[in-house]
């Protein structure tokens, strides 16, 4: 019996780690429902995983270490090569003289590192970490959209960010996605993040969603936007990959 319990616990914790790596943040209540165990059990699992250095326990759930410490050991970044492939594809959308608005996250940091030094463009970002990478490029003008620094995701959030975004008009908005599905569109688990992402989309002529394939066909609690609001969906897969077949009938372009 003890052996069975241990195996169940190991499987449960493996599932938790995968969910955190995939979506950056998880809620104890959601994990409890998904795994059909009590929230106390989930809290104990998260405490153990935190003490083992595998996740960061926060109020109400946990976040991935690479989400919180994106400049630390590269081995901590989940699906790093896939994220780099997405960044390389996204670079092709950035043209001379463009005004671009970005979110945060590890894929966006990889993108910021890869931008060719000869491109002249203006970048607005809600992420101080992305801004630090962008300013390394001599021909980029970099502006941060300021607000309260959201500690878990290390991006600026709140009413001041939304108000500032209302006065900006950009050519291209680059955002990550925590969930994407044909039925629900782009979704996220955090209310404040959703509000800022919606404001970012409203101020942009075109929207590019950067998303590793594992997040396809997954749904989070809150809706960010419909699929028809997107201009591009960028994954690490080839645009003719069978996994993307359901998305080929949509109005956006697959990259």
Automatic annotation (TrEMBL):
Gene3D superfamilies: 3.40.50.1360, Winged helix-like DNA-binding domain superfamily/Winged helix DNA-binding domain (1.10.10.10). It holds the Pfam family HTH_DeoR. PROSITE patterns: HTH_DEOR_1 (PS00894), HTH_DEOR_2 (PS51000). Residues 9-64 form the HTH deoR-type domain. GO terms for molecular function: DNA binding; DNA-binding transcription factor activity. The keyword DNA-binding applies. Keywords: DNA-binding, Repressor, Transcription, Transcription regulation. This is DeoR family transcriptional regulator.
